[in-house]
Amino acid sequence: MKRKFQNSQSRLPDNTAVKQQQLPAYRLQLSAKEILSGFFATGVFCLGIGIILLLSAKSIKEIEINYTEKCANCAKLRENAANFDRECTCSIPFYLSEAMRGNVYMYYKLYGFYQNLYRYILSRSNSQLVGTDIKDVTNCSPFKNSPDGTPIAPCGAIANSIFNDTIVLSYNLNLSIHIKVPMLRSGITWWTDKYIKFQNPGSHNLSSAFAGTTKPLYWPKPAYELDEEDPGNNGFINDDFIVWMRTAAFPTFKKLYRRLHRIQHFTEGLPAGSYSFLFLDFPVSRFQGEKSVVLSTLTWSGGSSLFLGLAYVVTGAVTWLAFFSMMAIHLRLKERKVFFLQ
Amino acid sequence: MKRKMYFSLSHFHITAKYSMWSFLPRYLYLQFSKAANAFFLFITILQQIPDVSPTGKYTTLLPLLIILVISGIKEIVEDYVSLLLVNALKPTALGVPWCTTCFIFLSQPQATCYVATSNLDGETNLKIRQALLETAEMQTEKQLSSLSGKIECEGPNCHFNNFIGTLYLNGKSPVPIGPDQVLLRGTQLKNTDWIFGIVVYTGFETKFMQNAVQSPLKRSKVEQVTNLQILVLFLLLLVMSLVSCVGAAFWNGKYGANTWYIGKKGNFGLNILVFIILYHNLIPISLLVTLEIVKYVQALFINWVNEDMHYRRNDVYAMARTSNLNEELGQVKYLFSDKTGTLTCNIMTFKKCTIAGIIYGDHPCLITESSEFSDPKLLENFEENHPTKEYIKEFLILLSVCHTVVPERDGNDISYQASSPDEAALVKGAKKLGFVFTVRTPYSVTIEAVSSTLCTFQGFINRKRMSVIVRTPTGRLWLYCKGADSVIYERLSEDSLFVEETLTHLESFAREGLRTLCIAYIDLTELEYQQWLMMYKEACTVVQDRAQCLEHCYDTIEKKFLLLGATAIEDRLQARVPETIANLLKANIRIWLLTGDKEETAVNIAYSCKLLSGQMPRIQLNANSLEATQQVIDQNCQDLGTLLGKENDLALIIDGKTLKHALHFEVKKNFLNLALSCRTVLCCRLSPLQKAEIVDLVKNHVRAITLAIGDGANDVGMIQTAHVGVGISGNEGMLATNNSDYAIAQFSYLEKLLLVHGAWNYFRVTKCVLYCFYKNVVLYVIELWFAFVNGFSGQILFERWCISLYNVIFTSLPTITLGIFEQCCSQESLLRYPQLYTISQTGDIFNIKVLWIQCINALVHSFILFWLPTKMLEHDTVLQGGYTIDHLFLGNFIYTVRSSIVSMIFFFLQFSHLAVWGSIMVWLVFFTVYSFFWPTIPISPEMTGQAWMVLVCPYFWLDFFLVPIVCLIQNVIWKSNTCRRTLLEVVREMESSRGQELDRSGDPLCFALSGGYAFSQAEQAVVSQEELIRSYDTSKSKTRRTFFPAFSESSFE
């Protein structure tokens, strides 16, 4: 018999483990003992973490003040276009029974604002925001251009609907002395946003860099005048603007507004006492949902939500429950199992 | 027209599937005719509509292109390899005298030639073909070139045994041409150096090709289930899209007025497209190509396999000729096996004999694999005047005289040409013992015995016996007869000796599966002979019922036999056949033997390969008409009663004639019921088409996988019909191999192919499919959950490229690893406990139900995967520095946690460090790098800084550990159900402990006797064996054509 395959030499199997399919294989081999001890250990782990999380969440101080109702008057006033320039302040006093130690963060929280809508999220121009092409408004529909055809900067639905209430926290040392709590408006954005993703168009003079564009429809002033105190915080790199542009995942969301500048009275955080919020500006109030302002401290793990801690505790408890019931079954079947195996 | 001219290589015309130019259009057509690919093309087109796609324009195009390129490369490689293989085969094909066209036999020195038809009908004996008298004398090319005329013959058809034609030679009267002048494609010329012929049919017109079943496209059951499930997923996709659209409508009604910030709204029609695009990834885009790759590698494993499947003698390796059916090998329930060349080597050896009550050749140490008869005791007894010396002499003379073998002297060596390999074995055996058959003339034979030269003769052959009347040089008359024990024993004289002893020996031979022949003689007187001769001559001249008269005439002299002994011929089985069959039976595979050979031979082989055992009751179906068949089948069904439909320890034996009726429309169902109730089914005398029909019957009426194995052209039909066709390669014909799905060199390799590769591949492919469904459902249903918080707007949660590359990059590695390296348990265990095969055979681990369970499991996991992080992040500040998060943060958070759970699920599939940690690492590295793209590389600005923020978030790591625990705890509880342990788990445990062995309850193999006998004569041939041997006169010059009338006065030399 002649060889059928001339190339049979090359068909000789190499004696490698791969080709011979003799790679060492690990298979999950669950013996009763291993499972039970695994369950037990998992239960311990989950309960432990859960309790730690609960405790640390409890240590957080948080206060939330809803100002939708209380400042409704101002909102109404502003709705009339004639009162565009009139100042309206509304003040909400509150009392902090315990001091908030450490870093204190001030958030604004919106209820029922869907920043996660598909057409909303798409409506922005990243190349504009990174400063490469100020007139690129391709993706900004339906807020691309003003009615006269000038491209909007920053364009798009997100930018257009920016949160622009002004909130001031003051500490009432006594009835007559109200100290404005020093707040930092920097360092509230992701580092990459401030230094990579958002860049002003390259020009010394910001207003000339924005030449040929117009302000968004609902904005009272153009982007390069957002921060009157700090000229470096204007244009696309304005912190408040950047924070807003990072679209929230849920219809109810908090966004970082200010953080406590720990100087003078506040080196330790916010001392206990009486405070009040002043809401200064309501440039536009088309928003129909609720708004509130939140003061909060943080711990290593995060905020004040108990959910994760509870989830861990429940998981741990369920694991232990499974552990005990399986133990019981195992002990009961042990004798029978011996028979089965033999 | 010498022989070389008709050795065309037409059956190696496997041309490449693609040419350089046709590749692209053909390939694209092939790919897009697959529903899944067409669907993704459709999605790609949809995405081009502005404002509709939430995932950008090219996110489906890219993975689709990747997949097309990968499977295109695979196609090219496969095409190239098959081309190489064909090229490798071509030169070797030349050496084999194969007829590849049908042609009409014109001339040859003896005007006759032998052909082996085992490839067509599985019969072991050679057939005789006879040249036309009118052309027989034309033996030079010059003579032939003078020949002119025409041939009229019937059109191409599939009947092997029929041929009608007429040869019109110029100036001569027309000559009829029958099947005896036709050499068919697929037959093999034997014992003949050359012949002249005229080609009548070529290529597809040949009867062989006409018999070929249209090669069907075979798809595996797993593939069908998978396709069905893809369809189900598509429906799920539509349902999800509709639900989302309705949700969007509701949401718009409720909150739509408040969304002043969005500027414009979508409509329902547009929304549904948005959602279809959003959820389209639910359909695993990479599944098909992953399976293709996995199966391709699996096929390579079969080709590469270790030396276990390497037949050293021929240097032939196993070869997977298709990779579509790899997992089907793990599900075989019915095995249809050919006999000749598949179970047996088609080599007969004279192994044992019993002479005068003494058994020879039974010495245990002398029985080795290939040893022929060699027992010094026989010659000792013969030479040393043992009391049985005379019997031994008569016995050996009989062996060397009573046969139809033609000797051919080649120098000093004599070779024998025999139509029946049994006879050749016996004559060779006698030669070895000193009784050399040297010359045959029409009425004499000469043997060079130890002392004398003997002469003859009068011979006649009947179905189950053959007799010759011999006159020795000393003038004594003998009648020698050999035949089946049943025939001989009923004709024994009362004075016959050794009857009991021989019977015992026959039983012991039969128990070993040897083919036995009884040997007997009569000492005739001159008077008896002359009387009989007269009677015989009369009978020969009778016009009516001549055959009957002759039969009667034979009977008058063939009586009062004196028993000499018996021979035992081994139809050698291939190595390890009985063990393989025993293991396959243990694996709950039903084996049906389908053969073209005679019933007795088939039964014999079934015994020797332990397919039949002595205690096994047999149901024999032999009926000549439809009514009779129906009746006998109904009767048997009734007898079985409640046992019908169950598996009984019964053997069903049926022949081709009865089967023809049994396959009739009305009888078919009952016949099948009966056959399925038997453990073993033997079908004899089947035509190739019948073989295919019976396979088809089982395939269509039983929901089980069938496998057909054969080596010859007569098996091609059933090989193509069965779900899986296996060809035995390495024998001379390549036809079976070329039409098979898998080619192996030995029957015993089937064990490894099925029990190891089949089972492995099944586990691999099914787990691979399940995993693909799991990972897709787990990820993309999250989009639906997210729709509940984003007002059904169609917003995606993940970054678009992360979605589109999920299948082709991030999860391809574990999927392919699973498909290639998964081992349910080790090779040794699978071979040791064939029962494990039933796991894959029943298909319980992969069906629609299992797929649904897996999908629901994935649904639950995706629920946990989405809502746990959502609830954690919803009202909380999770980043140090008080930074707030965005939707993509949530997306990346979930996506990364997903990588852990999708890997952890591997603990239940097959753990592999590469797959588990590899896939997590691939994602993390990609994630990190990807977050630094913008604005240097202008893609995905939204990812900027995400990796850093996610990976430093403590909540992320807490969730990263919590989600797998929550998700998998139920699976662990499910899995660790300690009271219900399967055999597989027990075996695995043993493997890991390498401890005690399972006790194997092996039945003591018992056999009982059967009367097997070796007598393979052509029965229906027009030129009978008897006539043929009369035509030979080997004492004369070879080229002389000798063809004598059937009978004349005996001549003595």
TrEMBL record, chain A:
<feature type="transmembrane region" description="Helical">
    <location>
        <begin position="306"/>
        <end position="329"/>
    </location>
</feature>
<protein>
    <recommendedName>
        <fullName>Cell cycle control protein</fullName>
    </recommendedName>
</protein>
<dbReference type="Pfam" id="PF03381">
    <property type="entry name" value="CDC50"/>
</dbReference>
<keyword id="KW-0325">Glycoprotein</keyword>
<keyword id="KW-0472">Membrane</keyword>
<comment type="similarity">
    <text>Belongs to the CDC50/LEM3 family.</text>
</comment>
<keyword id="KW-1133">Transmembrane helix</keyword>
<dbReference type="GO" id="GO:0045332">
    <property type="term" value="P:phospholipid translocation"/>
</dbReference>
<keyword id="KW-0812">Transmembrane</keyword>
<dbReference type="GO" id="GO:0005783">
    <property type="term" value="C:endoplasmic reticulum"/>
</dbReference>
<dbReference type="GO" id="GO:0005886">
    <property type="term" value="C:plasma membrane"/>
</dbReference>
<dbReference type="InterPro" id="IPR005045">
    <property type="entry name" value="CDC50/LEM3_fam"/>
</dbReference>
<dbReference type="GO" id="GO:0005794">
    <property type="term" value="C:Golgi apparatus"/>
</dbReference>
<feature type="transmembrane region" description="Helical">
    <location>
        <begin position="35"/>
        <end position="57"/>
    </location>
</feature>
From TrEMBL, chain B:
<keyword id="KW-0479">Metal-binding</keyword>
<feature type="transmembrane region" description="Helical">
    <location>
        <begin position="27"/>
        <end position="46"/>
    </location>
</feature>
<dbReference type="InterPro" id="IPR006539">
    <property type="entry name" value="P-type_ATPase_IV"/>
</dbReference>
<dbReference type="GO" id="GO:0000287">
    <property type="term" value="F:magnesium ion binding"/>
</dbReference>
<feature type="binding site">
    <location>
        <position position="597"/>
    </location>
    <ligand>
        <name>ATP</name>
    </ligand>
</feature>
<dbReference type="Pfam" id="PF16212">
    <property type="entry name" value="PhoLip_ATPase_C"/>
</dbReference>
<dbReference type="InterPro" id="IPR008250">
    <property type="entry name" value="ATPase_P-typ_transduc_dom_A_sf"/>
</dbReference>
<dbReference type="InterPro" id="IPR023298">
    <property type="entry name" value="ATPase_P-typ_TM_dom_sf"/>
</dbReference>
<feature type="binding site">
    <location>
        <position position="515"/>
    </location>
    <ligand>
        <name>ATP</name>
    </ligand>
</feature>
<feature type="binding site">
    <location>
        <position position="339"/>
    </location>
    <ligand>
        <name>ATP</name>
    </ligand>
</feature>
<keyword id="KW-0460">Magnesium</keyword>
<keyword id="KW-0812">Transmembrane</keyword>
<dbReference type="GO" id="GO:0140326">
    <property type="term" value="F:ATPase-coupled intramembrane lipid transporter activity"/>
</dbReference>
<feature type="transmembrane region" description="Helical">
    <location>
        <begin position="58"/>
        <end position="77"/>
    </location>
</feature>
<feature type="transmembrane region" description="Helical">
    <location>
        <begin position="954"/>
        <end position="974"/>
    </location>
</feature>
<feature type="transmembrane region" description="Helical">
    <location>
        <begin position="888"/>
        <end position="909"/>
    </location>
</feature>
<dbReference type="InterPro" id="IPR032630">
    <property type="entry name" value="P_typ_ATPase_c"/>
</dbReference>
<dbReference type="Pfam" id="PF16209">
    <property type="entry name" value="PhoLip_ATPase_N"/>
</dbReference>
<feature type="binding site">
    <location>
        <position position="715"/>
    </location>
    <ligand>
        <name>Mg(2+)</name>
    </ligand>
</feature>
<feature type="binding site">
    <location>
        <position position="596"/>
    </location>
    <ligand>
        <name>ATP</name>
    </ligand>
</feature>
<feature type="transmembrane region" description="Helical">
    <location>
        <begin position="914"/>
        <end position="934"/>
    </location>
</feature>
<feature type="active site" description="4-aspartylphosphate intermediate">
    <location>
        <position position="338"/>
    </location>
</feature>
